[in-house]
Amino acid sequence: MATATGIHHRSYRAELALRHTRAEYARLGLMIMALVAAPYVLGNYWLGIVNTILIAVIGAVGLNILVGFTGQISLGQGGFLAVGAYTSAILHERAGLPVVVCVVIAVLTTAGIGAFFGLPALRLKGLYLAIATLASQEIIIFVVRRWNWLSEGKGFIDVSRLNLFGWEIKRETFEFQWYWVLLVLAVVAVLAARNLFRTGLGRSFMAVRDHDIAAEAIGVNLTRAKVTAFAVSSGFVGLAGALTAHYTETVTWERFTLDVSVLYLAMIIVGGLGSVAGAVYGATFMMLLPALLTEVSDAVKGQLPFLADQLPAIKNAVFGLVIVLFLIIEPRGLARIWQRTKDYVRFWPFRY
Amino acid sequence: MKHTKRYAIAAASVAVLLGITACGGGTAAGSDDKTPIKIGVIADLTGATGDVGTPYNEGMLGYIDWINAKGGIEGRKIEAQSNDYAYKVPAAEELYKKYVAGGVVLIQGWGTGDSEALRKKVASDTLPFMSASYAEVLTDPKESPYNFVVAPTYSDQMRVALNWIAKDAGGKTEVAVFHSDSPFGNAPVADGQKWITEKGLPLGYKAYPMPKTPNQIGLLSQAKSQGAKYIVIQNVSSPAAQVAKDIKAQGLDMKIVCLNWCSDDLMVKTAGADAAEGTVMVQPFAPPSANKPGHKDVADYLTSKGSSLEAKGLHYVQGWYTMHVMAQGIQKVLKAGDALTGENIKKALESMDAVDTGGVVGSGEVKFSAESHRGSTATGVYQVKAGQLVELEANAKP
Amino acid sequence: MSTFLSLSVYGLADGAILALAALGFVLIYKATSVINFAQGEFLLVGAYTFYAAFVVLGLPIILASLVGVLFAVGLGIVVERFVLRPLIGESPISVIMVTIGLSAVLRAVVQMFFGTSVREQPAILPRDSIKLFGGQIPLNRLFVIAIAAFVLTAFTVFFRRSRHGIAMRAVADDQQAALTMGISVRRIFAMAWALAAVSALIAGVLLADVSAVEQNIASFGLIVFPVVILGGLDSVPGTIVGGLTIGMLKQYVSGYADPGLAEVIPYIVLVLILMVRPYGLFGETRIERV
Would an 8 Å CB–CB cutoff place A305 in contact with chain B? Predict the structure, then answer.
């Protein structure tokens, strides 16, 4: 119950609730309305962008579990996305399994491979782990490029249109139908991540991040925690990869390079490490940025032709600048900025 | 405790923001009288193949400018949206979605990666798609019903190259194929091997993907241990030039046969006339030095803009004529008075008479049919002599 | 024999350039404990600055080199002051990400000014080859090895003998103690970054000369990681050994096995070293105190 002196609870049940104040419920309601209204209001192009954002949200939330909550730096997301995408695509196209089965198997496979690549984390920390995951990224991409069996020599896999037990995605309403599928999955992913950190396992992840030796001293099984963190995080990322495969209907290795790993890291850094909502904000922000830049460039094409000519370079420059500026000015990201805004409003006219 | 709340706020603000900037949904272009013909152009200006993608794009836009100045096609001007995707397939897909939403009737693409990735989408969205990718799979209407390829495919070029090598060697010899490590590079490799078996050519054949390293010595020593005397290169000019330089530095007895993307002045200039001497180039598009009748229009246009054909080079002509062929299809539809939809343009392209390109593309004529979207099969074979491309054979067919 | 010799020479040349690039990386890490993911882009900027001075402005080679060095020093100091200093004390991942962001900005700026097509630069090193033991050895590669050896020796002497070099080692060893001895740690940080940029400049120019002035130069930066892990993150002799080893290994694999595999071999080596000797061949074992 919210009061001027803070938020107080009168029962354990109330403390465990996801929303505490009326303002929070109001915002939740607004959000639900916006999410439901979005596909009716937005045109196809922007809805397509929202769909890619939803997929990125799943991936970013997954990565945040590993990097933000467990403190293990990982540069290998591109590789795990690739594992998820290829597994799902190959099972769907060649074994003819229904989509849901393919995606589930893809998630489990990626989780398994993630756990395997998490084994170095038991011996390495910080920078060394980052470099090891960088190596894993490069090695996975190399294997994907060279292993001809994966794409039967074509270099890419065509994935047929999504067909869920007879509910088909049609051309005219492609983005619209995908929006609902992705929205449901994204919400499930976010809630799952949120709940994970209310469990003992989730707390053990955070203990490992804060001080792993001390965590071990109080009885957290480090091996189990770290490997599970890698597995869970990779599962989320594998889901994002599988969805990418089905949504874009092609699987090429170009989608899963080191640049993509860096992009996901940027999402959670800009959004705020160690915060599920931060991952969502970060994913939205980083995926919207290029699209907005394109719009701006189109709008000012007449006055500033330089912008349109150099658009890819400018997109890269802005990407880098955003990361650098966020880290210098607000290292705890968008989540913190939002928190400060709310605090300002809540405590006004007092300073704190 | 308030984490999911933030998800709420984020999504809400995103949705509101998007709502404000929402664009309308796309519709197919109508068959109005003088409305402009909208087309989408996906170009690589700053990416891995940007050095050839830029003149190609300029040639295409140059053609559009030229024809608009003459009143457009049947009185309707072409309105081209051209954007750079830097050879990254995801960016190409974004641009594609944008163009579809903007109501284009056809797409001019660029690379093999994106052409192959988009072919199913353009088929279901009924948008004719021409590109600078000459991969064989794009010529088969069953696989890629809406893709059209104006020039001989990479596989055709490979077959011509192998024929020439068999003739030049006059006996048994070994061929090493250096290709880019990408769908573009892989395209002709398997077909080359099949051709050798099919025609019983006495050629040993081995393919090597090219890594991006400062020297190709490792690759060349592999080729040397294979005993290769001929190196077919399926890559762009600058890696091919590196191979030429390394062959010269090592004093190896190997002859380079370039397929179309490294067969140009850029390769000769980067390698140096010395290192490039004797290189055989399979180039379906006639270089400016060949002075074909089809070069005249392009040269005149460029001079009127204060430039010259020599300055812009072969790829400018390539882009120009690719758009020219597409324009013939559009013209057929408009002349017949039909609605300008993607489907009608496709049918027009398949049924129209051969397009005369004044000897610039392949054998000079480009013709599609309902069974084959391969515009031509003949190509020119040139050799570099004293820094210039000299024609060895015209209209070489596999 | 001749193949082996050519491969060795090419490998040593590439390895020497790698060692130079990695040297800058190690300098920064030793002095400031920062992992510089933008090292490859420093090479890129160095190569293009020299290109701009030498080809675009047409300055004579000595003057162009001077311009390059001044620019590199300036870049290093600016980066340290405005990008890295605000992040002192932040978590390692933040520092890594800021250098990644910096690398994207640098690459984009070079692209804006110079485009992505390959640029021609007149050869600085001689292009001919000489016949040695049956193999054709290109002269420019031999020059690269010689120049790199000279620069690396100069740096080693700098660290052993000069005041500033010793000051840098002191700061790397124990910042607090160095401060109490009156060493300006801020100045040392700036110097580390400046020197790293200069060694990257030299490496970049050499690389541009043997291959081409193009965007691919930046990808050399990623291979620096296997080199420094092999040699040890805080060891200069280790870097030299690591660089030469990786360079030669890549060349041998490319020549005798699969050229494509040669691209990924450094990472496989990296993983193996991390499993067996995480601190590299010459690095110091880290002891973590609770």
Answer: no
Which residue on chain C is closest to A267 by alpha carbon? C97
**What's domain B37-152+291-367's superfamily in CATH?**
Response regulator (3.40.50.2300)
Shortest Cα distance, chain C CAs vs residue A171, angstroms: 37
Chain A residues touching C104 at Cβ < 8 A: 262, 316-317, 319-320, 323
How many CA atoms does the CB half-sphere of C32 hold within 13 Å? 32
Which residue of C246, C254, C265 is the best one to mutate when testing the B interface, meaning the one whose CB has the most B CBs within 10 A?
A: C254
CA distances from B204 to A74, B199, B232, B234, C258 (A): 45, 13, 12, 17, 18
DSSP lists the bridge partners of residue B83 as B42
Contact C163, C169 (CB under 8 A): no
Q: Does the beta-carbon distance from A324 to C83 stay under 8 Å?
A: yes
Note whether B88 contacts A153, CB cutoff 8 Å: no
Determine, for residues B250 and C250 on separate chains, whether the beta-carbon distance falls below 8 Å: no
- Cβ-based neighbours of B361, under 8 Å, separated by 6 or more: B150, B151, B284, B285, B286, B294, B321, B325, B375, B376
Chain B contacts in chain C segment 73-92 (CB below 8 A) = none
Prediction pTM value: 0.87
Distance from CA of B77 to the nearest CA of C (A): 32
CA distances for B321 relative to B150, B295, B299, angstroms: 9, 10, 13
Q: What is the pLDDT along chain C (290 residues), one digit of tens a residue?
A: 677 888 888 889 889 999 999 999 988 988 888 889 999 999 999 999 999 888 888 888 888 889 999 999 999 999 999 998 888 888 888 888 999 999 999 989 998 888 777 777 777 777 777 777 767 778 888 888 999 999 988 988 888 888 888 888 888 888 888 889 888 888 899 999 999 999 999 999 988 888 778 777 888 888 898 998 888 887 888 889 999 999 999 888 888 887 778 888 999 988 888 888 777 777 777 666 66
d(CA A279, CA A67): 11
Domain ranges of chain B: 37-152+291-367, 154-283+381-396
Chain A: closest CA distance from residue C232 (Å): 11
Element (H, E) at A234: helix A222-248
| Architecture per CATH, B154-283+381-396 | 3-Layer(aba) Sandwich (3.40)
Give me B295's structure tokens: 């070069």
Which chain B residue's Cα is nearest to A142?
B181
Three-class SS of residue B173?
strand
In angstroms, rounded to a whole number, what is the distance separating the alpha carbons of residues B386 and A291? 49
Give the gap in angstroms from C-alpha A270 to the nearest C-alpha of chain C.
10
Query: Is the preceding peptide bond at A349 cis, omega within 30 degrees of 0?
Result: yes
pLDDT tens-place string over residues A67-113: 999 888 899 899 999 999 999 988 988 888 888 899 999 999 999 99
Nearest CB to C100 within list A124, A214, A323: A323
